[in-house]
Please model this.
Amino acid sequence: MASVLKEAKKKIVYVDDMNTSLLILKKALKEHYEIFLANSTKKMQKILKKIMPDLILLDVNMPDTDGYELIKILKTDKHYSSIPVIFITGNDDKESVQEGLKLGAAAYVIKPFNALKMIETINKILYPT
Model:
């Protein structure tokens, strides 16, 4: 019998200062992806020293470094500049969405999100056709 290698789950880092949001998203996505949670920029940096994610999810409103500043840092770092970023935020005004996309986000998702649509959005980015 031929052995079938199971493809490793894609690694996603989710950065949000709200622990409830982190846990809700992890529960929604853990079956499909390997999820690493960070409730601060400092925690994200520790995670990035250990793993190279396939995707980064960012909240916009955070106390230490907001998501817009964080994506600027990531996109100017040669190690992380090619990693797609999705904003997941409650900021649903047109200007916020445009700013996120202008800074290089692959997508902009408004909280509360629909789990199936979130998985669909992630899969379009991780598995382009």
User: Anything to note?
Assistant: The radius of gyration is 15 Å.
